[in-house]
Amino acid sequence: MKRFICQIIVYISIIIVVDIIIGHCMSYLINNVKGGDNWRNNYICKTTNEDVLIFGSSRAFHHYNPQVIIDSLNLSCYNCGQDGNGIILNYGRLLMILQRYQPKVIIYDISTSFDYFANDNHKYLGRLKPYYDEKGIKELFNSVDQTERWKMLSSMYRYNSSFLQIISDYFHPIQQVGNKGFRPLKGSFDPMKIRNNKDNEDNEIMYDTLKIDYIHKFISLCNNTTLIFTHSPIWYGLDSTKLDLIKNICKKNKIPFLDFSNNPKYVHNDSLFKDGSHLNENGANEFTKYLIRKLRPLL
Q1: pLDDT above 70 coverage of the chain, percent
Q2: Exposed end of the chain (fewer CB within 10 Å): N or C?
Q3: Would you state the pLDDT for residue 262?
Q4: How far apart are CA 41 and CA 97, in angstroms?
Q5: Is the confidence at residue 201, as pLDDT, over 60?
Q6: Which of the following CATH numbers is that of domain 49-147+178-298: 3.40.640.10, 3.40.50.2000, 3.40.50.1110, 3.30.420.310?
C-alpha cells in the first residue's frame, strides 16, 4: 500500500511539474509572438494607446477601417473587434486597457447574439485565459463559472485550446494582424450561397442577465470616454425589436445609438457584401466613410 501511495504521489508530482513547465513555455511564447491573432490579442490587451477604439464581434472586426477614421477625424484608431465574441471578452479587454489609459472615443458595434442573447458564455473566455492574473479578470471568470477558479490552477489549461496557434504565431505567423487591427473581407457576395439569417429565424428572445450586467459595467467604465453604440449593416436587414434592449439602455444612459441594420443604402446591396452578415472590403470602406458623417456631431 505504501508503495502504491508513493507511486501516486510521484505521478501527481510529475503531472504538476510538466504542467508548470509547459505553462511557462506557452507564456513565454505568447508574450513574444511575432504576429497573428495572438500578437493582435496582446496588442489590444497590453499596448493600445489610440484615441479611438472599435469594439464588437466580427462585424466590428471587418466593417470599420481605422485608417479612414484617422484620415477623416485626425485621431489615432485601432480596431479591437473579434470574430464570434461580445461583451464578456470586450469588458475584460477594456479592464486591461483602462489600467494604461482612457481612450477618447469607443465605438461599440452591438451584436444581439453575443452581447445580450443567451448562449454558452464559456466560449468568450478563451482569449482572456492568458491574462487571468490581471486585475478584475478572475472575477469575470468566476461570474461565468465558479469552477473556472479551480481549472485555472493548471497552467496548461490557460493555453489548452491554442497550443498550435501560439507556436505558429511565434515561429511563422500565418494569419495577418491586419491594418490597425482591421481585417477586411475579400471577394463578393454570392446570392446562390445565401442562408437564412439566424437572427430572423429565432422567434423567441432569451436574454442573458449576465451579459446585460456587463453591458452596464462596460458603460460605467466609460465615464470619461465618449461611448457610441452602433449596429453596422447586414445584407438581410434585422427585426428592429431585437434592438429594443440596447436602445433602451442607451436612452437611459444618454448614449448615442447609430442603427444601420435596416438602412436601405445597404440592405440587399450585393456589391457591398461578402456574405449575409458581413461587408466586403469595398463595403467596409464605404460604410466607415458614411459612419464618419454621423459621428462628427457626436464628438
Answers
A1: 95
A2: N
A3: 94
A4: 12
A5: no
A6: 3.40.50.1110
Residue spans of the domains in the chain: they are: 49-147+178-298
C-alpha cell at 283: 463595403
Q: Give the pLDDT score at 136.
A: 95
